[in-house]
Amino acid sequence: MTKGTTSFGKRHVKTHTLCRRCGRSSFHCQKHSCSSCGYPAARKRVYNWSTKSIRRRTTGLENASSEGCSSPFPKWIPRRKCCQKADQEQLSFQ
After folding, report:
1. Contact partners, residue 14, CB within 8 Å, separation at least 6
2. So where are the chain's domains?
3. Which residues pair with 34 in a beta bridge?
4. What is the pLDDT along the chain (94 residues), one digit of tens a residue?
5. Alpha carbon distance 72, 79 (integer Å)
6. Which of 18, 36, 63, 71 could form a disulfide with 26 if both were Cys (CB 3.0 to 4.6 A apart)?
C-alpha cells in the first residue's frame, strides 16, 4: 500500500463550491454553473416537479409582514427623538 504519489493523484474530489447567488455549495467548479439556482444564467433555476424546493426558496407566508418594514425595531418600542425629528421633517415637506 503506497502512501505517496499514487494516493496524491486521487485528490481531485471537490467538485462543488459555494455559489455567489444562492450561497449553497452547489456551484460546479469545472462546469461553472450552479446546480441549485443555475447561477451564470440570468433566470433562476426553477422546476415544477420540485414543489418543495420552490416552497423553501419563496419568502414568508400569505401576508406581506415577512418582507420587513422600514424600521428594524418593533412598533411598540419607543423610538429615539432624533428619529422622530426626521419623521416630522418629512411630514412637513408633504
Report:
1. 29
2. 14-58
3. 27
4. 789 999 998 888 899 999 999 999 999 999 999 999 999 999 999 999 999 999 998 877 666 655 555 666 667 766 666 555 555 666 666 6
5. 11
6. 36
d(CA 76, CA 85) in angstroms, rounded, equals: 18
Length of the chain: 94
Name the phi and psi angles at 33, rounded to 5: -150, 145
pTM: 0.57
Whether the CB-CB separation of 16 and 29 falls below 8 Å is answered with: yes
Alpha helices for 1-94 (secondary structure H): 5-8, 51-57, 81-93
64-93: b (≥16 Cβ within 10 Å) or e? eeeeeeeeeeeeeeeeeeeeeeeeeeeeee
